[in-house]
Amino acid sequence: MQFFADLHIHSKYSRATSKEMVPSNIAKGAKEKGLSLVATGDFTHPLWREELKSAFTPYADGIFLCDDVYFILETEVSNIYVKNGRLRKIHNIVYVPSFDDADRVSKALSKYGKLGSDGRPILSLPSENMVEIILKASKDAFVVPAHIWTPHFSLFGAFSGFDRIEECFGENTDQIFALETGLSSDPPMNWRISALDRFTLISNSDAHSPRNLGREANCFNCGIDYFEIKNTIKNKDKKKFKYTIEFFPEEGKYHYDGHRKCGVRIPPDEAIYHNNICPVCGGKITIGVLHRVHLLSDRKKDAPMPENAIPFKHLVPLREIISEVLSVGVESVKVETEHHKLINKFGNEFACLIDASYDELASIAGDRLADAIIRTREGKISVLAGYDGVYGEISIVGREKEKKQLSLF
After folding, report:
1. Helix H or strand E segment including 145
2. How far, in Å, CA of 328 to CA of 325, rounded?
3. Helix (H, G, I), strand (E, B) or coil at 252
4. Of 191, 216, 250, which residue constitutes the final position of a domain?
5. At 59, which CATH number?
6. Structurally, how many domains does the chain consist of?
7. Closest CA relative to residue 27, chosen from 214, 245, 228
8. What is the extent of the structural domain holding 373?
9. What is the CATH number of the domain that holds 367?
10. Per-residue pLDDT reduced to its tens digit, 235-275
């Protein structure tokens, strides 16, 4: 069975997260996007865990059902600690196969932080030690470093991360078999670091609202079963793990270097020229993901796809495409009307963005929007790169505009 899965989200109990992130709304948003399986987020939060127990019906090993959508138990934790003389701030994702496991893991981690204070709790616990504690509480759990390049809270983050995964996880590095790329990087960027070849790259939304579900996701062709999904990821089984769905990394809010306060957005080479200092105010700039990849890479920019790597597709969320074509805000009534028409026809966003033909799209939404969706699918877009917490800006050049440009030469 082929299906899409988003394996990292947050609940209403996480800071800066929509109050709409409850089981019924998550299920509704998942169906709209085309997700069959979605993570619960935040299982370490005691109130959320009780809500999940009430909302879910057991389906298969480690899988639960709510409103015809499958769920897997997942949480993200923020490990903050000092190692090798530096303050480290690392976000890690944890998966478990049952509520009993979730209870045991939560109890074990409660010694290191206040789990009820935030859906993504802060733990005064090194990542290496946490892996050992989790696996002792739940032998079938697994840990995935989250959005590994984000500047402030990640494995390789510029401000508080490490240069090598072994520095972070030490003797427990062999327990880590997957890495989450995050919105500001994609697989080709990660392929530039040969030390990452042995890890499976997964992609997830890290959604804080129902609309952002599935903005990145994973396409599997296996049983919807915790252990089969875990083994598919662990073994990098390309027959069962078909591809990941990716943001164009430039659209991520930490792709380029920059200083939001001064409106300074610069590529790595320019940041290096300025000694990583804002050319406007003289303050420190935020080192982005592209810069960090450049520093740690041992391969060229256009490094070939490793032999055992999982394929990927770049997509832009449907509402963003509609907004660009209509030149109106993504939250506008016009965008919602067009979005509703397409979902009614094709069933979900992924069907529109991946499978629908030009003629099928045009019959519902007209030539301009159909053209924009196809061009996005083909990667024929431009992006003003995101920086220092500011998302990048998508621009889709239509066929008519392209013809006018060509006629100038």
Report:
1. strand 142-145
2. 8
3. coil
4. 250
5. 3.20.20.140
6. 2
7. 214
8. 317-407
9. 1.10.150
10. 999 999 999 999 999 999 999 999 999 999 999 999 999 99
**Among residues 297, 175, 315, 302, which one has the least CA distance to residue 243?**
315
**H or E segment at 93?**
strand 86-96
- Domain boundary, last residue among 191, 219, 250: 250
* pLDDT tens for each residue of 345-382: 999 999 999 999 999 999 999 999 999 999 999 999 99
Q: Name the nearest CA neighbour of 28 among 222, 243, 214.
A: 214
Using an 8 Å Cβ cutoff, are 134 and 94 in contact? yes
Q: Is 94 helix (H, G, I), strand (E, B) or coil?
A: strand
Alpha carbon 335 to chain centroid distance? 24
C-alpha 206/C-alpha 268 separation (Å) is: 26
| Domain presence at residue 257 | no
Angle between helix 23-33 and helix 46-55 axes, rounded to 10 deg: 70
**Residue holding tokens 């920086």?**
387
pTM for the structure as a whole:
0.96
Specify the pairing of strand 63-66 against strand 312-314: unpaired
Distance set, CA 394 to CA 62, 251, 310, 338, 368 (Å): 38, 7, 26, 19, 16
Beta bridge partners of 94: 75, 143
**Measured between alpha carbons, how far is 315 from 289 in angstroms, rounded to an integer?**
19
